[in-house]
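haha ok so turns out i had the wrong file open the whole time. this is the CORRECT one, sorry everyone. sequence first:
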Amino acid sequence: MSELLNKESVKRVQEFIKKFDPNLKILVLDTTARTAKDAANSLKCELGAIVKSLVFRAESDFLICLVAGDKRCSLNKLKKILDKKDVSMANADEVKVNTGFSIGGVAPVGHLKKLNILIDKSLSRFQYIYGAAGHPDCVFKITYSELIKLTNGSEREIIK
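then structure:
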C-alpha cells in the first residue's frame, strides 16, 4: 500500500500538509475511502467526521465546499453566499482540471488552481475530522480549527 504515497496527487497533499504541520500524516487505508460512507467504515468513525470535498462551478469560477459526510450542501445557500445565479456541481473533468484530483480522492488542499474554499460549520462538532489525501484510499486526520488554517477557507453554513 505504501506505493500510494508515491503517487503524484498524494505527494502534492503530503507536501502541503507537512509545510503546515510536520506531525500531520497521510493514512493509507486497507479499504477504500472513495465515498464518505466507505471512509467512515474504514476508519471506524462517525460519517460526519469525514470531510467531503465538493467542487462547484459558479458561473465561470470554481470553488470547493468542505462538508461533513453526513450532510448535504445547499445550492440555494451557495447561490446567496456567492451572489451568483448559476451554481452547479462540477463534472469529473472540471474537478480534475481544477484540483488535479479524481472524484473520490479530492483533497481539501494541494489543488492545481487557486480555488475559493468554503467550510461548513457542521464539521466543528468533531474533535478530529478526516480529509481525502489525493487518492480514494488515502486520508489525513486534522482538527476543525487546523483545517480552517490549512485551507485558508471561510467558515459558512452551507448545508441543507
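The radius of gyration is 14 Å.
again sry for the mixup
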